[in-house]
Amino acid sequence: MPVSIVQADLDRPSGFQHLLKKAKEDLSSAKEKVIPIIQSVKENGDKAVKEFTEKFDSIRLDSVVLDPSSIQTNVPRDVQTAFLTAKKNIEEFHRAQKRDSWNVKVDGNLLGVKYTPIPSLAVYAPGGTALYPSSVLMGIIPAKIAGVKEIQLVTPPQKGGLPDILVWLAQILEIDRIVTVGGAQGIAAVAYGTETIPRSEFVVGPGNSYVAAAKSYLAGIGQIGIDSPAGPSEVCIIADESANPKWVACDMLSQAEHGEDSSAVLLTTSAKFAESVSKELEIAFVERPKRLEMKKKAIYENSCICIFPSLADCVTFSNLLAPEHLEIQTEDPHSVFGGIEHAGSVFLGNYSPVAMGDYISGTNHILPTAGGSRIYSSLGVDSFLKRVTFQEITKESLNRLYPHVKLMSELEGLDEEHGTSVKVRYEEDLK
After folding, report:
1. What SS3 state is found at 189?
2. Under CATH, domain 28-226 is a member of which superfamily?
3. Is 97 annotated as a binding residue?
4. Same fold: 28-226 with 231-376
5. DSSP string covering 374-407
6. Coil, strand or helix at 282
7. Residue 35 DSSP one-character state
8. Which H helix or E strand runs over 344?
9. pLDDT score, position 77
10. Domain residue spans in the chain?
11. What pLDDT is recorded for position 129?
12. Which helix (H) or strand (E) holds 112?
């Protein structure tokens, strides 16, 4: 059963319309299950958190908060070196995103923007087989650079103790505490705070559908801020015959390895190249059987190779798709990139697989999915900064602009107080 290959035409979208519908994760059933959990944690605090942890994780907790500096860890030196290298690169890239407050004179008045960090952050780190310590770096480093003062790591408890790598990262990143509570109850605990868990005003990080549903629900009622709504991982690859079909197949499979609901879409102008990539996928299934059924389902059911008449059509379609990850493996990738408007993160050239951004290059891998890059951006320093606008009005400007304020406030029916608040100053100056 080879991957689906479609002769695509933007004027006849029926062959690829299903790709544009984007399999946004339907969280409605998960939300129904997490809302009672959230309410219970809100009302009963630590008691509810411990009860749900025992129910879902089969672990009875005495304490739900740990001081990372008090825990001994044993992380191999080569693993430390890898993560320290990633940390350095991520810090360097994100430091370049720092913003300075600014001001400008407008009509004689001093106007400006002052940037201030959000006060507190919780970074969720899944446990068990879905352990993503790299996401801890991605969530905490830009927040630290933005100036967030209170940061806690939220992660499910483990029967054998927390993974050394998570504790070690918490130590080197100098976060305030580790909250050993997972799932919807963990998100609710940091969203509302409990007797022992401080409240966080922003929550980021990957998790299962219940974690995603809890974040989405709590953000929807204005209790927390979150990174962009998350769905299954995805990659779009624009490639011509100059690309290596084996490398492209590997990149498609690297997304399929995330889960059976992941998707990998190849856009090309060459039927020959499309067939070559399809063959390489089949060879990879034989040579690398780990997570085979999951990868096959992702490739056969959620992925596709689209053959378009031109690279310009590939770019147009990619912008419609607005993928989480976009790779451009063409003879002139920068020229193609010039037409890209919507993507979470873009990987230029044959030597830029998504995995480099996932781990080590320095860009952030917490990205909008399911077409979200049309309105959301990757996580970054900006994600943790607020804009506070300010103005200092001069007496001369107020007197000059008052007649316009008078007319506008009268038009909106707010002249009695809005208009008067300016008028009394105007009249005072006439005395």
Report:
1. helix
2. Nitrogenase molybdenum iron protein domain (3.40.50.1980)
3. no
4. yes
5. GT---S-GGGGEEEEEEEE--HHHHHHHHHHHHH
6. helix
7. H
8. none
9. 97
10. 28-226, 231-376, 394-430
11. 64
12. strand 109-117
Q: What backbone torsions phi and psi does residue 264 show, to the nearest 5 degrees?
A: -135, 120
Q: Is 325 a catalytic residue?
A: yes
Residues 209 and 28 sit within 8 Å (Cβ to Cβ): no
The catalytic position among 94, 234, 280, 325 is 325
Q: Is 365 annotated as a binding residue?
A: no
- From the list 94, 234, 280, 324, the catalytic residue is 324
pLDDT 10s digits, 135-194: 999 999 999 999 999 999 999 998 888 999 999 999 999 999 999 999 999 999 999 999
Q: Which amino acid is at 88?
A: K
Both tokens assigned to 228? 């962009």
Laid out side by side, the sheet with 385-392 consists of 102-106, 109-117, 385-392
Q: Is 342 annotated as a binding residue?
A: no
Q: Is 324 a catalytic residue?
A: yes
CATH number belonging to domain 231-376? 3.40.50.1980
pLDDT per residue as tens digits for the range 343-402: 999 999 999 999 999 999 999 999 998 888 999 999 999 999 999 999 999 999 999 999
* CA–CA gap between residue 126 and residue 380 (Å, rounded): 21
Mean pLDDT of the chain: 92
Determine whether the annotation assigns residue 412 to a binding site: yes
Is residue 334 marked as binding?
no
